[in-house]
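Next comes this protein:
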Amino acid sequence: MTRPWPVAITGLGCICAAGNNLDDCMEALYSGRRALAPSSRFTSDHPIKNPVFEVPGFNEPPELLRTSALGLQAAREAIADAGLDQQTLRSLRVGVCVGTTVGSAMNNEQFCRDYRAGLEPDLAPIERILRSNPAAVIARAFELTGPCQTVVNACASGTDAVGLAASWIRGGICDIVIAGGADELGRITYNGFISLMITDDSPCKPFDKNRKGLNLGEGAGMLVLESEEVRARRGKEARSFLLGYGSACDAHHLTAPKPDGEGLRYAIAEALSCSATPAEAIAFVNAHGTGTPDNDRVESRVLADLLPGVPFLSTKGYTGHTLGAAGAIEAVFTVACLERG
Protein backbone atom coordinates (compact mmCIF):
# COMPACT_ATOMS: atom_id res chain seq x y z
CA MET A 1 0.00 0.00 0.00
CA THR A 2 1.27 3.44 -0.92
CA ARG A 3 -0.35 6.36 0.83
CA PRO A 4 -0.54 9.68 -0.99
CA TRP A 5 1.26 12.81 0.09
CA PRO A 6 0.99 14.87 2.21
CA VAL A 7 2.28 13.56 5.52
CA ALA A 8 0.97 15.44 8.55
CA ILE A 9 3.30 17.07 11.08
CA THR A 10 1.51 16.95 14.43
CA GLY A 11 4.29 17.55 16.96
CA LEU A 12 7.50 19.58 17.25
CA GLY A 13 10.37 19.54 19.72
CA CYS A 14 13.68 21.37 19.84
CA ILE A 15 16.67 21.95 22.09
CA CYS A 16 19.72 23.95 21.05
CA ALA A 17 21.74 26.99 22.08
CA ALA A 18 18.72 29.18 21.34
CA GLY A 19 16.69 27.44 24.05
CA ASN A 20 15.85 24.21 25.85
CA ASN A 21 12.40 24.01 24.25
CA LEU A 22 10.71 25.31 21.14
CA ASP A 23 9.06 28.31 22.79
CA ASP A 24 12.41 29.54 24.13
CA CYS A 25 14.01 28.99 20.72
CA MET A 26 11.32 31.06 19.01
CA GLU A 27 11.78 33.85 21.55
CA ALA A 28 15.50 33.89 20.76
CA LEU A 29 14.91 33.99 17.00
CA TYR A 30 12.41 36.83 17.17
CA SER A 31 14.33 38.87 19.74
CA GLY A 32 17.75 38.42 18.14
CA ARG A 33 19.26 36.81 21.24
CA ARG A 34 22.39 34.70 20.60
CA ALA A 35 24.30 32.43 22.97
CA LEU A 36 27.70 32.32 21.26
CA ALA A 37 30.51 31.82 23.78
CA PRO A 38 33.68 29.80 24.49
CA SER A 39 32.97 26.14 25.22
CA SER A 40 32.24 25.24 28.83
CA ARG A 41 32.42 21.49 28.15
CA PHE A 42 35.92 20.99 26.79
CA THR A 43 39.26 22.64 26.21
CA SER A 44 41.38 22.42 23.09
CA ASP A 45 45.13 22.58 22.52
CA HIS A 46 44.52 24.16 19.12
CA PRO A 47 45.93 27.70 19.02
CA ILE A 48 42.74 29.08 17.46
CA LYS A 49 40.02 29.58 20.07
CA ASN A 50 36.69 30.31 18.41
CA PRO A 51 33.32 30.54 20.21
CA VAL A 52 30.57 27.93 19.84
CA PHE A 53 26.82 27.52 20.39
CA GLU A 54 26.35 25.11 23.31
CA VAL A 55 23.03 24.08 24.84
CA PRO A 56 22.77 26.05 28.10
CA GLY A 57 22.18 24.30 31.40
CA PHE A 58 21.68 20.82 29.97
CA ASN A 59 23.20 17.92 31.86
CA GLU A 60 22.71 14.48 30.36
CA PRO A 61 21.93 11.60 32.74
CA PRO A 62 24.96 9.36 33.40
CA GLU A 63 23.41 6.38 31.63
CA LEU A 64 23.07 8.27 28.33
CA LEU A 65 25.50 9.92 25.95
CA ARG A 66 24.84 13.59 25.31
CA THR A 67 23.70 13.23 21.69
CA SER A 68 21.08 10.65 22.64
CA ALA A 69 19.97 12.66 25.67
CA LEU A 70 19.46 15.75 23.49
CA GLY A 71 17.45 13.70 21.01
CA LEU A 72 15.31 12.19 23.75
CA GLN A 73 14.58 15.63 25.22
CA ALA A 74 13.38 16.95 21.85
CA ALA A 75 11.38 13.77 21.22
CA ARG A 76 9.58 14.08 24.57
CA GLU A 77 8.53 17.62 23.67
CA ALA A 78 7.38 16.62 20.17
CA ILE A 79 5.38 13.62 21.42
CA ALA A 80 3.69 15.72 24.10
CA ASP A 81 2.94 18.40 21.52
CA ALA A 82 1.30 15.77 19.30
CA GLY A 83 -0.96 14.71 22.19
CA LEU A 84 0.27 11.11 22.12
CA ASP A 85 0.08 9.07 25.30
CA GLN A 86 1.63 5.67 25.90
CA GLN A 87 -1.60 3.79 25.23
CA THR A 88 -2.06 5.48 21.85
CA LEU A 89 1.56 4.90 20.88
CA ARG A 90 1.31 1.20 21.73
CA SER A 91 -1.87 0.82 19.66
CA LEU A 92 -0.25 2.13 16.46
CA ARG A 93 2.72 1.24 14.26
CA VAL A 94 5.23 3.84 15.44
CA GLY A 95 8.79 4.08 14.14
CA VAL A 96 11.81 6.19 15.05
CA CYS A 97 14.29 7.67 12.56
CA VAL A 98 17.08 9.94 13.83
CA GLY A 99 20.03 11.49 12.00
CA THR A 100 23.41 12.22 13.56
CA THR A 101 26.92 12.97 12.33
CA VAL A 102 29.35 12.84 15.21
CA GLY A 103 27.28 10.90 17.71
CA SER A 104 29.16 11.20 21.00
CA ALA A 105 32.83 11.23 20.09
CA MET A 106 33.95 12.70 23.44
CA ASN A 107 32.81 9.47 25.07
CA ASN A 108 35.53 7.57 23.19
CA GLU A 109 38.54 9.82 23.77
CA GLN A 110 39.96 8.31 26.96
CA PHE A 111 39.39 4.77 25.67
CA CYS A 112 41.35 5.55 22.49
CA ARG A 113 44.18 7.27 24.39
CA ASP A 114 44.56 4.33 26.78
CA TYR A 115 44.39 1.78 23.97
CA ARG A 116 47.06 3.56 21.90
CA ALA A 117 49.28 3.85 24.97
CA GLY A 118 49.15 0.09 25.49
CA LEU A 119 47.09 0.38 28.66
CA GLU A 120 44.05 -1.69 29.61
CA PRO A 121 41.20 0.67 28.66
CA ASP A 122 38.01 1.01 30.64
CA LEU A 123 35.23 -0.65 28.61
CA ALA A 124 32.48 1.58 30.02
CA PRO A 125 32.58 3.94 26.98
CA ILE A 126 31.97 1.00 24.64
CA GLU A 127 29.03 -0.14 26.75
CA ARG A 128 27.59 3.39 26.67
CA ILE A 129 27.85 3.46 22.87
CA LEU A 130 25.98 0.17 22.58
CA ARG A 131 23.06 1.38 24.66
CA SER A 132 23.00 4.99 23.41
CA ASN A 133 22.03 4.68 19.75
CA PRO A 134 19.97 7.88 19.33
CA ALA A 135 16.97 6.23 17.67
CA ALA A 136 17.02 3.20 19.96
CA VAL A 137 17.06 5.40 23.08
CA ILE A 138 13.81 7.05 21.99
CA ALA A 139 12.25 3.72 21.02
CA ARG A 140 13.09 2.22 24.42
CA ALA A 141 11.87 5.25 26.35
CA PHE A 142 8.42 5.04 24.75
CA GLU A 143 8.30 1.27 24.14
CA LEU A 144 8.01 1.73 20.38
CA THR A 145 8.29 -1.48 18.37
CA GLY A 146 8.19 -0.16 14.80
CA PRO A 147 11.19 0.43 12.52
CA CYS A 148 14.11 2.06 14.32
CA GLN A 149 16.97 3.59 12.36
CA THR A 150 19.83 6.02 12.94
CA VAL A 151 20.95 7.81 9.76
CA VAL A 152 24.57 8.94 9.46
CA ASN A 153 24.99 11.07 6.35
CA ALA A 154 27.10 14.04 7.40
CA CYS A 155 25.24 17.32 7.77
CA ALA A 156 22.22 16.06 5.79
CA SER A 157 21.56 13.33 8.38
CA GLY A 158 18.62 14.98 10.13
CA THR A 159 16.99 16.03 6.86
CA ASP A 160 17.44 12.56 5.38
CA ALA A 161 15.96 11.01 8.53
CA VAL A 162 12.80 13.10 8.14
CA GLY A 163 12.53 12.17 4.46
CA LEU A 164 13.07 8.47 5.18
CA ALA A 165 10.47 8.61 7.95
CA ALA A 166 7.94 10.12 5.55
CA SER A 167 8.58 7.26 3.12
CA TRP A 168 7.76 4.76 5.89
CA ILE A 169 4.39 6.42 6.32
CA ARG A 170 3.71 6.68 2.60
CA GLY A 171 4.73 3.06 2.12
CA GLY A 172 2.28 1.85 4.75
CA ILE A 173 5.04 0.64 7.06
CA CYS A 174 4.21 3.06 9.88
CA ASP A 175 1.27 5.12 11.09
CA ILE A 176 3.49 7.55 12.98
CA VAL A 177 7.24 8.20 12.99
CA ILE A 178 9.29 10.21 15.46
CA ALA A 179 11.88 11.77 13.15
CA GLY A 180 14.68 14.29 13.39
CA GLY A 181 18.33 14.75 14.24
CA ALA A 182 20.66 15.15 17.20
CA ASP A 183 24.34 15.97 17.66
CA GLU A 184 26.55 17.11 20.50
CA LEU A 185 29.55 19.41 20.35
CA GLY A 186 32.91 17.93 21.28
CA ARG A 187 36.65 18.41 21.07
CA ILE A 188 37.21 16.22 17.98
CA THR A 189 34.55 18.08 16.01
CA TYR A 190 35.87 21.45 17.17
CA ASN A 191 39.50 20.66 16.31
CA GLY A 192 38.51 19.22 12.95
CA PHE A 193 36.56 22.25 11.78
CA ILE A 194 39.15 24.66 13.18
CA SER A 195 41.82 22.79 11.20
CA LEU A 196 39.79 23.20 8.02
CA MET A 197 40.01 26.99 8.57
CA ILE A 198 36.27 27.42 7.99
CA THR A 199 35.12 28.72 11.39
CA ASP A 200 34.43 32.31 12.41
CA ASP A 201 35.71 34.04 15.56
CA SER A 202 32.53 36.15 15.66
CA PRO A 203 28.84 35.39 14.96
CA CYS A 204 28.60 33.69 11.58
CA LYS A 205 27.08 35.65 8.70
CA PRO A 206 25.36 33.25 6.27
CA PHE A 207 25.15 34.58 2.70
CA ASP A 208 26.87 37.85 3.68
CA LYS A 209 29.59 39.04 1.32
CA ASN A 210 31.88 39.44 4.36
CA ARG A 211 31.24 35.95 5.75
CA LYS A 212 34.31 34.14 7.11
CA GLY A 213 33.03 30.75 8.20
CA LEU A 214 30.70 28.84 10.47
CA ASN A 215 30.10 28.62 14.21
CA LEU A 216 29.75 25.10 15.56
CA GLY A 217 26.70 24.20 17.61
CA GLU A 218 24.78 21.31 19.14
CA GLY A 219 21.20 20.31 19.74
CA ALA A 220 18.28 18.24 18.50
CA GLY A 221 15.10 18.77 16.54
CA MET A 222 12.26 16.24 16.38
CA LEU A 223 9.00 16.07 14.45
CA VAL A 224 6.04 13.73 14.83
CA LEU A 225 5.04 12.64 11.32
CA GLU A 226 1.63 11.04 10.97
CA SER A 227 -0.53 9.56 8.23
CA GLU A 228 -3.59 11.61 7.39
CA GLU A 229 -5.93 8.71 8.26
CA VAL A 230 -4.54 8.32 11.75
CA ARG A 231 -4.39 12.06 12.36
CA ALA A 232 -8.03 12.48 11.30
CA ARG A 233 -9.12 9.52 13.41
CA ARG A 234 -7.38 11.00 16.45
CA GLY A 235 -8.95 14.38 15.79
CA LYS A 236 -5.53 16.02 16.03
CA GLU A 237 -4.97 19.21 14.06
CA ALA A 238 -1.83 19.20 11.93
CA ARG A 239 0.72 21.91 12.59
CA SER A 240 1.83 21.61 8.98
CA PHE A 241 2.29 19.06 6.20
CA LEU A 242 5.30 17.53 4.51
CA LEU A 243 4.47 17.63 0.81
CA GLY A 244 7.60 16.12 -0.70
CA TYR A 245 11.26 15.34 -0.29
CA GLY A 246 14.38 15.07 -2.44
CA SER A 247 17.85 13.67 -1.78
CA ALA A 248 21.01 13.50 -3.86
CA CYS A 249 24.78 13.09 -3.62
CA ASP A 250 27.42 15.39 -5.10
CA ALA A 251 29.97 12.54 -5.31
CA HIS A 252 32.58 15.30 -5.28
CA HIS A 253 34.38 16.10 -2.01
CA LEU A 254 34.26 15.12 1.66
CA THR A 255 33.41 18.60 2.99
CA ALA A 256 32.99 21.00 0.04
CA PRO A 257 29.97 21.16 -2.30
CA LYS A 258 30.40 20.58 -6.01
CA PRO A 259 30.95 24.02 -7.58
CA ASP A 260 28.00 23.71 -9.97
CA GLY A 261 25.68 22.50 -7.19
CA GLU A 262 24.59 19.46 -9.18
CA GLY A 263 23.45 17.46 -6.15
CA LEU A 264 21.49 20.35 -4.67
CA ARG A 265 19.84 21.03 -8.02
CA TYR A 266 18.74 17.42 -8.28
CA ALA A 267 17.43 17.31 -4.70
CA ILE A 268 15.35 20.47 -5.18
CA ALA A 269 13.94 19.19 -8.48
CA GLU A 270 13.09 15.86 -6.86
CA ALA A 271 11.29 17.55 -3.95
CA LEU A 272 9.24 19.71 -6.30
CA SER A 273 8.40 16.75 -8.54
CA CYS A 274 7.54 14.49 -5.61
CA SER A 275 5.11 17.08 -4.24
CA ALA A 276 3.74 18.12 -7.66
CA THR A 277 4.62 21.68 -6.70
CA PRO A 278 5.62 24.20 -9.40
CA ALA A 279 8.69 26.27 -8.63
CA GLU A 280 6.53 29.39 -8.94
CA ALA A 281 4.56 28.32 -5.85
CA ILE A 282 7.60 28.51 -3.56
CA ALA A 283 7.54 31.67 -1.43
CA PHE A 284 10.51 31.14 0.90
CA VAL A 285 13.47 28.81 1.50
CA ASN A 286 15.05 28.04 4.86
CA ALA A 287 18.52 27.33 3.49
CA HIS A 288 21.49 25.37 4.82
CA GLY A 289 23.56 28.58 4.87
CA THR A 290 26.55 27.61 6.99
CA GLY A 291 28.40 30.90 6.55
CA THR A 292 31.37 29.31 4.79
CA PRO A 293 32.51 30.88 1.51
CA ASP A 294 32.10 27.67 -0.54
CA ASN A 295 28.73 26.47 0.75
CA ASP A 296 26.97 29.81 0.59
CA ARG A 297 28.34 30.64 -2.86
CA VAL A 298 27.09 27.37 -4.36
CA GLU A 299 23.80 27.31 -2.49
CA SER A 300 22.86 30.90 -3.28
CA ARG A 301 23.62 30.43 -6.99
CA VAL A 302 21.51 27.28 -7.21
CA LEU A 303 18.58 28.88 -5.39
CA ALA A 304 18.80 31.99 -7.56
CA ASP A 305 18.81 29.82 -10.70
CA LEU A 306 16.00 27.42 -9.75
CA LEU A 307 13.85 29.75 -7.65
CA PRO A 308 14.53 33.25 -9.01
CA GLY A 309 13.32 36.04 -6.78
CA VAL A 310 12.42 33.73 -3.89
CA PRO A 311 13.87 34.99 -0.57
CA PHE A 312 16.05 32.61 1.42
CA LEU A 313 17.89 32.80 4.72
CA SER A 314 19.65 30.67 7.31
CA THR A 315 18.96 30.45 11.05
CA LYS A 316 22.47 29.19 11.89
CA GLY A 317 23.34 32.60 13.30
CA TYR A 318 21.22 31.56 16.31
CA THR A 319 22.10 27.87 16.62
CA GLY A 320 25.48 27.43 14.99
CA HIS A 321 25.98 24.53 12.63
CA THR A 322 24.51 21.61 14.56
CA LEU A 323 25.75 19.06 12.01
CA GLY A 324 23.42 16.04 11.88
CA ALA A 325 20.73 17.94 13.78
CA ALA A 326 20.77 20.99 11.49
CA GLY A 327 18.13 20.03 8.93
CA ALA A 328 15.74 18.74 11.57
CA ILE A 329 16.09 21.82 13.79
CA GLU A 330 15.54 24.04 10.76
CA ALA A 331 12.45 22.04 9.73
CA VAL A 332 11.04 22.59 13.23
CA PHE A 333 11.87 26.31 13.03
CA THR A 334 10.25 26.60 9.60
CA VAL A 335 6.95 25.11 10.76
CA ALA A 336 6.91 27.23 13.92
CA CYS A 337 7.73 30.42 12.02
CA LEU A 338 5.05 29.73 9.39
CA GLU A 339 2.51 29.44 12.21
CA ARG A 340 3.70 32.63 13.87
CA GLY A 341 4.02 34.62 10.67
